[in-house]
Amino acid sequence: MNQSHRFGFITFAGPPNAGKSTLINLLVGRKISITSRRPQTTRHRVLGIKTLPDAQLVFVDTPGLHHDEKKSLNRMINRTAINSLIDVDLVVFMIDHRGWTPAIVKSLRQVISRGVPVMLAINKIDTLKNKSRLLPLIHESTNLHDFVEIVPISARKMEDTSDFLNTLISHLPEGPPGFPAEQLSDRSDRFIASELVREQTFHLLGEELPYESAVEVTRFDQSDPDYWKIDMVIWVDKESQKSIVIGKQGARLKIIGTRARSAMEKTFGTRIYLNLWVKHRKGWADNASIVKSLGYGEE
Ligand SMILES: Nc1nc2c(ncn2[C@@H]2O[C@H](COP(=O)(O)OP(=O)(O)OP(=O)(O)O)[C@@H](O)[C@H]2O)c(=O)[nH]1
Ligand SMILES: [Mg+2]
Q1: Ligand 1 pocket residue status of 24, Cβ below 6 Å
Q2: Is any atom of ligand 1 closer than 6 Å to the C-beta of 194?
Q3: Those residues with Cβ within 8 angstroms of residue 205's Cβ, 6 or more apart along the chain or in another chain
Q4: Looking at domain 189-293, which of 3.30.300.20, 3.20.20.140, 3.30.70.1150, 3.20.20.300 is its CATH number?
Q5: CA nearest ligand 1 atom 23, residue
Q6: In terms of pTM, does the model score above 0.85?
Q7: Three-class SS of residue 23?
Q8: Which ligand is nearest to the Cα of residue 63, counting in written order?
Q9: Ligand 1: which of 34, 35, 62 to mutate, most ligand atoms within 8 Å of CB?
Q10: What would the pLDDT profile of 92-117 be if each residue is shown by its tens digit?
């Protein structure tokens, strides 16, 4: 093993919608975590793994930290984010170009209290018309914390990731790789497939779909490696939400299915047969045991 090989865990934390999952997908080079305009798109802790000749970086994607803990689901999601700050080598705290709010500073304090080195990434600078606004923001940030680095970026426009990766690597300890070189995530294809359906429900339904929806895989048949057969149920909280997801004569569900299938074929490099159902189960987001049974709060 090369003496100077580095290995470490890097947690991406920060407010919802900052672009954490977008950047991790870009760095890994494959979609492992879904993204959308809605805050709190990420609900689970997901690992993305990048293997280079001299380093292996393990990215921990976390749900955006927020302060509405009324529901079991929200509490679980926050706990997932906080637990992901334990035993990591570096935290990338990501905000966007709009800067700090009291709630974001509060989340930062929570992160700092874990005692891990924190790098600040200021994302979405492509939307900044006047780049001179960055300087005061950087200055304000240095007053908040002694960040190991402050890096303005655009996860959407970044074409070459090597500078960013090298900056991260410089903060990792020496050590051999912890995962096989071909492994890109700790999550199963089954999980990623269900997330790709959830992503399309977010994109197509926007604010119409309450957070209280979830996707359950009921069949994941890979017996033909070139043609996987997948059945899933989209769970909603209220009977009335069923027709929103299904749409007129099933039109919306059909688009969700077509787009999710195409995303799966791209991600997995195989043909997919996908069947979707919509069912309702009342009050699941308030019910801790149902939230658990759908896979939330798992490490
Ligand atoms: N203009 C612009 N948009 C971006 C950039 N990075 C991410 N976005 C968009 O911002 C939105 C949120 O991105 P996500 O990656 O889902 O954000 P997140 O931080 O993972 O959000 P949560 O999972 O909800 O905490 C998506 O619509 C992205 O396409 C960027 O550099 N520029
Ligand atoms: Mg995310």
Answers
A1: no
A2: no
A3: 244, 245, 252
A4: 3.30.300.20
A5: 42
A6: yes
A7: helix
A8: 1
A9: 35
A10: 999 999 999 999 999 999 899 989 99
